[in-house]
Amino acid sequence: MEQIKITINGKECIGNKGDSILKIATANGVYIPTLCHFEGVKDYGACGICLVEGEGLPKLMRACSTAAADGWVLSTETDRVKKARKIALELLMSDHDGDCVGPCSLNCPAGTDAQGYIKQIALGNDYQAVKIVKETNPLPASIGRVCPHPCEKNCRRRFVEQPMSIAYMKYFAADRDLHLTSPYDGVTDGTVFRGGMDGKCGISIPPTYKPEVKKATGKKVAVIGGGPGGLTAAFFLRRNGHEVTVYDAMPEMGGMLRYGIPEYRLPKRILHREIAEIANLGVKLVNNVRIGGEASPAAFTGAEVISLESLRKDYDAVVIAVGAWKSSSVGCPGEDAEGVLGGIDFLRDVALAVQPYDPEGTLSRPINIGKKVAIVGGGNTAMDACRTAVRLGAEDVYVIYRRTRNEMPADEEEIDDAIEEGVTFKFLTNPAEIISENGKVKRIKLQVMELGEPDASGRRSPVPVEGKFEILDVDTVIAAIGQKLDPTGFEELEFNRKGIITADEATFRTNLEGVFAIGDATNKGADIAIAAIGEGNKAALVVDSYLNGEIIPYKKPFVSERDEETVKKELAEREKAARVIMPKRTPEERRHDFKEVNLGFAEEDVRKEAARCLECGCHDYEDCRLIFTARREEICPARLKGQHHPGFVEQKLVSIERNQNKCILCNLCIRTCDENAKKGILGLVGRGFTSVIKPEFNDPSVIAGCKDCHLCADACPTGALKIIG
Hints:
It contains 23 helices and 29 strands. It is of the alpha/beta class. Strands 2-1-5-3-4 form a five-stranded mixed sheet, sandwiched between helices. A five-stranded parallel sheet has the order 10-9-8-13-24, sandwiched between helices. A five-stranded parallel sheet has the order 15-22-16-17-18. Helix 9 (228-239) runs parallel beside helix 16 (529-547).
């Protein structure tokens, strides 16, 4: 066979005369994107993606269907090629009607594969479910308990009856993996369980899921802050083989999960177990160490002081994840009176008083807030503060919020629980003055409000009703209206006008070389814990690239998303199956202690709940050549959006479900059926734009052969064909 030599993207490639450009490129390790090529099937260049340009040649060529000529110098990345490929991909994606991943995952700040782990839970594979979760979130048992679950707000099951109980299923699986529903959950002193024989109780304990750690790189990273963001960054950097040390000013790791979330929502023995799993990967955890200057929160007093500069000298990279630990003030006369507390300060003080790892949540010392307590604010911190006040013995607990319940940012379930526990909500009121006697809070004067025009966020702005006030007798006022960064020790960094660290949103870099910042301390300020985890995950990728010599900014992956109105219509006749409700302790019982409120799902119930999943995301997402190719280009399919091909889902191929919405008419299934399977079952029906692929069964023996063949599904470059039997 006569050999020829061509050059592709600067690389010399040897092939046989008559071979296609694509065949020679593949044999020589040069990647050329293609969707309509499949080994063993004749090429004819249907997709228009494998374009190349040759020096001195007038036209772009399709690499899969063009025979190479000796001496050609070709490129796959010229401006002309990239422009043509981009348009071809945009045309394909603008007509592609499918969800790459479930809307639940898209609405999760950490991008957790909810559909994936729910499927494993439905199958009874809790270990595998946790493995999937820990690809983005190292704290599933903790986050499953406290997350306001934005994933559920986007769950398509809401179009049928109620969203899936996504967060609670996650913590069920994580508890099972940690053996927290078994006889060996008897530790109350913080002992770490591992696989094998436990020296304390002599019980053989199965191992929990432990991710693989890559070979040591010799690089060292310091993480400042042991909250969810810092622990997540440490977890993923360690998995990549780096030596990681986490420094935290508080007595124990966990950040706001430990000191801002009450025991009744997140028992600290659960958090401790998950942090211990991170330590077991080889992450070094150092507590009672703070960065420079005077201690700000009282709890930091006594911590060892080190400087940011010293960490920069000792480590190859530094990740700042210190959170936002300063409570915002009420902003009215009298707020300096004794008995006016910040929400974060109050919750931290109570957390420090709870006996470590005590399942009963017993306080080690009394916390006196009086009998009448007012909490100002409408977020989840306000809910935590008011429900904590109830447990401390307050008889009259008020939540003061300047809008209505409909505008409250707090989780609906938290509001309902607070009401059940006896909290009184004073909607459309705002503090006008805190009245004190002898320097101590005595009353709070409330300005009555009404809703005016929408503000920048879309919520209707509250405006005062002139001359209308209400006065409450109170012993304590707790301001839970926001939190901010304490900049002490970080003066070298650049801050925005709100006093928050400025960090590049794609690289997390600060103004200091090798110093990165994430979470509540940066850019937009305080957010939910899963958002910090998401940033910790993404930052770890960027810092890893930095340590490897070339910083690669985080880029949100391109995905295909279905139109919600179309989906809503399709689900109108779906069989209803009610959401499984989390069982809880009664309000009368739980309002008197700090024991966990949730009782947890029974196994039968969680498997039933998991089975409700609609599996919106594509089954072929991980192997889809269409989305893989689309992500290599900067495409914007929306600009070419127009009429769609006729779309439908059918199961006429006996063991294969065909989704015409995802079909790109590459005809690989037709050609595979003709040339490889020798069946000729599939063919194009219709002409022009309305063409679709349909099967034709005229012989029972052909149906029988189709049942076990599946060659067409193997060849399909998208998720249009799904094996179902």
